């Protein structure tokens, strides 16, 4: 009985909000706005499409070549990205700092994987249908900002901040599930 309850609790996703942004969004300003409302960096996950300028910079930064020194801009960007809960660049790579994102994206037995498909979005709690739709949108628009919080009020607040900072689409995962149930 306890084992079944544990499985149910682990399967229940934490309240979350997301926003889709065009590739030219000032991501640091979006994150700063979320931080100012009390959302920590560890609660934020970015999914950046491989054609996005951040992805290009990350590919060009050769971390394994110690003779080649990165520019201050590259080092600053990498330092900033590594402070976030997770950063995913499909087909290129990822950083995960947050234990919650580590579990959701990598550690589960049924972990759907991170790079090259919508599996990372499924790992974050999106339905298969929404994950595929959003992956297509990320490819067209550039960035998904995902915010996880144990407090529903904070999740609602995150949606408002994402809207104010220029998100093309925003919702809570609960809203996304409701849309899918109707369809």
Shape by Cα distribution: globular
Structural class category: alpha+beta
Outline the biggest β-sheet: 6 strands, mixed
Helix/strand order, N-terminal first: HEHEHHEEHHHEHEH
Strand order of the largest sheet: 4-3-2-5-1-6
Beta-strand content estimate: 15-25%
From the N-terminal CA to the C-terminal CA, the straight-line distance is: 34 Å
Q: Tell me the count of domains.
A: 1
| Strand segment tally | 6
Mean pLDDT: 77
Unreliable stretches, pLDDT < 50, 5 or more residues? Answer: 1-12, 176-183
Summarize, please.
The protein has 183 residues and is of the alpha+beta class.
Description:
The chain has helices at 2-11, 27-36, 53-60, 72-81, 99-107, 119-123, 128-141, 152-164, 173-182; strands at 16-22, 44-48, 86-89, 93-96, 142-148, 169-172. The chain is of the alpha+beta class and 183 residues long. It has one domain. The longest helix has 14 residues, at 128-141. The chain is globular, with a radius of gyration of 16 Å. The protein starts with a helix and ends with a helix. 36% of the residues are buried.
Write the layout of secondary structure elements.
Elements: H1 2-11, E1 16-22, H2 27-36, E2 44-48, H3 53-60, H4 72-81, E3 86-89, E4 93-96, H5 99-107, H6 119-123, H7 128-141, E5 142-148, H8 152-164, E6 169-172, H9 173-182
Parallel strand pairs: 2-3
Antiparallel strand pairs: 1-5, 1-6, 2-5, 3-4
List keywords for this structure.
alpha+beta, 183 residues, 6 strands, six-stranded mixed sheet, disordered N terminus, disordered C terminus, globular, single chain
């Amino acid at each position: 009985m306890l084992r079944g309850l544990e499985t149910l609790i682990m399967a229940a996703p934490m309240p979350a909000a997301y926003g889709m942004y065009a590739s030219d969004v000032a991501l640091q300003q979006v994150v700063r706005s979320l931080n100012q409302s009390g959302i920590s960096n560890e609660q934020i996950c970015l999914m950046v499409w491989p054609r996005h300028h951040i992805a290009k910079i990350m590919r060009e930064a050769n971390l394994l070549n110690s003779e080649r020194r990165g520019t201050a801009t590259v080092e600053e960007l990498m330092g900033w990205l590594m402070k976030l809960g997770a950063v995913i660049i499909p087909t290129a790579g990822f950083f995960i700092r947050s234990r919650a994102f580590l579990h959701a994206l990598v550690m589960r037995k049924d972990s759907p994987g991170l790079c090259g498909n919508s599996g990372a979005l499924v790992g974050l709690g999106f339905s298969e249908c929404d994950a595929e739709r959003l992956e297509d949108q990320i490819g067209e628009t550039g960035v998904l900002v995902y915010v996880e919080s144990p407090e529903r009020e904070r999740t609602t607040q995150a949606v408002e901040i994402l809207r104010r900072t220029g998100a093309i689409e925003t919702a809570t995962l609960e809203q996304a599930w409701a849309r899918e149930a109707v369809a």
